[in-house]
Design goal:
Layout (H helix, E strand, L loop, with lengths): L2 E3 L5 E3 L8 H17 L4 H12 L4 E3 H8 L3 H13 L3 E5 L6 E5 L4 H27 L4 H44 L1
Antiparallel strand pairs: 1-2, 3-5, 4-5
């Protein structure tokens, strides 16, 4: 397999999507979408997100998504609305066209998603602390709610450190790939 380094630093199979086993790709999309749905994402949004994730460009039109997933344009529209609201995809206008393309928010979509989760965790922690007061901190329910709040506080404290380690690891990987490209 011949690889090139794209401007963002990610290797890409230069044979592209045409060289792939479409049935295997479809099975992967459905499997990953099922994993996302099991974790709480809307099923159709999970399928659309997975389809965008596996496309080399990371962007597809509504018609392309409908065709690949064998779903209606209305289903695509609803899924895109959800994915846009949670900042996982963005809508772009094709130059000189009236058609929109839907693109993954960026290559760091998981990083960005986890960063935003920190705000949700803070809100959940606050709600749990209030709940513990209402229930009584010494009651079994109050202790359970306090432990939940403590967990959310712990995750908030650890998440930035973990994300910083991820950024460092990615920078090191990209630097190594750049060195290999220069040498190779």
């Amino acid at each position: 397999m011949r690889e090139t380094i794209e401007p963002g630093g990610a290797p890409e199979d230069t044979r592209g999507e045409a060289a792939r086993d479409e049935a295997a790709v479809s099975r992967f999309v459905e499997r990953f979408a099922a994993d996302l749905a099991e974790a709480g994402m809307q099923r159709m949004a999970a399928r659309v997100f997975a389809a965008l994730l596996v496309s080399d460009s990371g962007a597809l039109t509504s018609a392309e998504l409908a065709e690949r997933l064998r779903i209606s344009p209305a289903a695509v529209s609803g899924a895109i609305r959800y994915l846009s609201q949670v900042d996982m995809v963005v809508r772009e206008r094709e130059p000189g066209s009236r058609r929109d393309r839907y693109r993954l928010y960026n290559n760091g979509v998981w990083y960005e998603t986890l960063t935003r989760r920190d705000q949700i965790l803070a809100r959940w922690e606050s709600t749990m602390r209030d709940g513990a007061k209402v229930l009584g901190p010494a009651t079994p329910a109050g202790m359970r709610i306090t432990e939940t709040a403590d967990f959310f506080e712990f995750v908030q404290r650890e998440l930035p450190k973990m994300l910083e380690r991820w950024r460092t690891q990615q920078a090191e990987r990209r630097a190594a790939e750049a060195r290999e490209a220069e040498a190779g």
